[in-house]
Amino acid sequence: MKIYQVALKEIGKRKMRTLYTSFGIAVAVSMLISVMITASSGQKEVFNVIARYGHSLTITPVDKSSSQSLKNFGIGTGSYIPESALPDILNVYQDAIVAGWEKMGALIFQEGTMGVAGAAFPPPTFAPRLYEETTVKGKDVIVGGVVLEKELIARFWWDISDGRFMENDNEVIVGKLFATLTLTKPGDTLDLGNSKMIVTGILRETDSPDDYMVFTSLKACQTIFNKQGKISMINVRAMCPKCPVGEAAVEINKKVLGVRATSQMEIATAQSQIFQKTTALIVSFVVASLIISCIGVFNIIMGAIHGRMREIGLLKALGASKNQLIRFFLYEAVLIGVTGGVIGFVLGGALSHIVGPILFKDIVIQISPRFLVIAVLLGTLASILASIYPAVYASKIRVTEAFKSL
Amino acid sequence: MTTMIDINDVWKIYDVGGEKIEALRSVNLQIENGSFISIVGHSGSGKTTLLSILGGLTKPSRGSVKIDGTDIWNLNDRQLSAMRNRKIGFIFQFSSLIPTLRAIDNVALPVIYANGGGKTDRKATYEYAAELLSTLGLGHKLQSFPSELSGGQQRRVSIARAFINRPAIIVADEPTGDLDAQSESEVMEFFSRINEQDKTTFLLVTHNLALARMTDKVHTMKDGMINQNNGGSPA
Fold this sequence. Notes:
The structure holds 2 protein chains of 2 kinds.
Chain A: H1 3-13, H2 15-53, E1 56-61, H3 68-73, E2 81-82, H4 86-103, E3 107-110, E4 113-116, E5 119-121, E6 125-136, E7 139-146, H5 148-154, E8 160-163, E9 171-174, H6 176-182, E10 189-192, E11 195-203, E12 213-217, H7 218-224, E13 230-231, E14 233-237, H8 245-255, E15 259-263, H9 265-307, H10 309-317, H11 322-359, H12 369-396, H13 399-403
Parallel strand pairs in A: 7-12, 9-11
Antiparallel strand pairs in A: 1-14, 1-15, 2-13, 3-4, 4-5, 6-7, 6-14, 8-11, 9-12, 10-11
Helix pairs in contact in A: 1-11, 2-9, 2-11, 2-12, 4-8, 9-12, 11-12
Chain B: E1 3-16, E2 19-32, E3 36-41, H1 47-54, E4 62-67, E5 70-71, H2 77-87, E6 88-91, H3 103-114, H4 122-135, H5 151-163, E7 169-173, H6 181-198, E8 201-206, H7 209-212, E9 217-222, E10 225-230
């Protein structure tokens, strides 16, 4: 028999105390592991979206005769870009992106696709919009004319909560807030100008001005408001994660008169940073709870030591050195930590399956074996840290003090 | 004969609430190798303190304790632990078993510490542990936990444990306290046999004068001082 076997027997005989102590570690470890799994899976989801759609550009006309209400709404200027300018803008954009890639030493594969070292990306998506102000059901509202298939790429978060997207030029969808305030539902008819439009669906809440808008096809909007060949803005999706859209914006501003291109890359970067900082904040809270768990384990082990004064004194009298006693208690700590780590991993994995889908839509929880390793290492480290002082304390107990109880 | 234990001018003074209590006062005692001696005295006379000091469990306030020529209080913790483990077998006043270990594991425990938990001849250790337990009438209780043993059986397990490392000295504090007359007689017979066969030095502390008379020499302790008396009757 070896010292660790004596510790094992001790733990085997005091299963409930060991489980109770391990559970203190397990709770904190499970929280940490669930945050890590959720953050890791969620970040993958965010990166997947960025990788799929890339950053974006907004191209608006230079403000000449501005509409204050549109500006207040933050969705346009009231001026127009001729639809015929779209191919030119696209060309300038493509040239700028290719030049940007070349500057970075990247490869250009084929016309329309760009990429780096073997990775090809689809061409960008230009989603034009026309905004017009009108009154519907006695409420002032903005009507957006969109090219639906492009809009669904540019605004990939769009979803219908009730009904379906429009398919014909006499159909509209409405924002959630508008639908609530005007009691509009799928199947209703709305008067837009002189046209009667059928409501086919309610847009799921987006927390953006889209919630208080009515959307129809670009062609229908141009016809209804007599704005043929005109658009209010263009949303550009780069469709590649690292496309130099900032440089493309600079080139468009330089070469296309009457428009202003604004890169949204900074927003995406800031969002990513906020995500990381939020994760760090949550992790710091969880680490604090791990420290609290350590204090709990410390108290339990100190209590156990006081309850085992007789044994400790006896072991010393039988020839156990300070080092051997410290090892004896640290073996126990390792076993408690490993048990806590494994339980924490299982609980954390289960918790991430509950929390993940609440935080991220369409998240795929991926539990990698590295999280088990992290859980066991963390549990063991926490348990050892909590046990060092009690172990040293036990090793210093004077035999005669223990003997008073013998 | 060589001197196994040499206690020279040992004092033990406790500070209790600012008051100095002299538990031992200039104790001098030389015990030769292979002796079988006992110390008798009233409660509080200093018997257990003396045992603790010569067993390396309590540091004296003054004086020296030599075991087999080595001043034990000049040793570091590891050396002192090793000396306690290999040279001295302790039999404590009350039952002192590890509750989570079986009887045979309790007996083998000092070997684990003697070998640093490493190279232990497990088979030989456990054979000897079983032999000791059988000799003491516990051959059928090898796998029992302390909670499954009576007080007297627990005492016999702790007696067996004291012998597992074949120590040069056995220090026993009321070794037969929980035993009936027959068991007491068997244990004393066992002590005598080991004493004769292996020349193990025995130092017994007891209130039991009948037991003390079974030893070769009896010392009496009173007020922290020791008197010596030869021939099995106390001074």
